Amino acid sequence: MICMYTNASYTAVFDVLNTYTDISLPLTLLQPKSVGEITLASADPRDFPSINPKYFSDSDDLETLYKAVEIVRNLENTTAFQRLRIEPIILDIPDCDADYEKLSKDWWICSIQYVTTAGLHGVGTTRMGNNSETSVVSSELKVHGISNLRVVDAGVFPYPISGHTSTPVMMVGEKAAELIKNEYA
Predict the structure, then answer these.
(1) Comparing C-alpha atoms, which of 126, 114, 117 is closest to residue 27?
(2) Which terminal Cβ of the chain has fewer Cβ within 10 Å, N or C?
(3) Global confidence as pTM
(4) How many angstroms separate the CA atoms of 9 and 86, rounded?
(5) InterPro entries, per this entry (predicted)?
(6) Is the pLDDT of residue 2 over 50?
(7) 121 annotated active-site
């Protein structure tokens, strides 16, 4: 997901949770619509690229996560939660608390942006296609304009998958092995 907090704000928001015995119901946006970009910062290959993930640039992503919050909030009214006396821990988020009524939709939208963290498995960073102007690698996983270099990872996936990337990446690896074997056979 998205990381928009600093170490200090992370500590201020989440340290309170260490004082509770709790359950955690993390929300995951499996199919975000927002699209970021990676560009070269300079012609020097040793320079880090410029990365702009453009989190929540598509408002549907925020709405989807807000709907997930509503579902979790409705769990509070279930017999199971009531029997176990499970009560929500509503964090103080100063930037949102100052601007919005606590627990209002606007407050939740602000909070979602403030405390969401990035997932670990990015995809689509090396688009596949035949046109070198709009893609990085060919359907043979070869980097356009560079000989003897292929991309064999989740970067070639056009969209996020709704699960762990390990198995699909292994499949890309198997395909790459087959392509290389056939090319040099």
Answers:
(1) 117
(2) C
(3) 0.78
(4) 26
(5) FAD/NAD-bd_sf, GMC_OxRdtase, GMC_OxRtase_C
(6) no
(7) yes
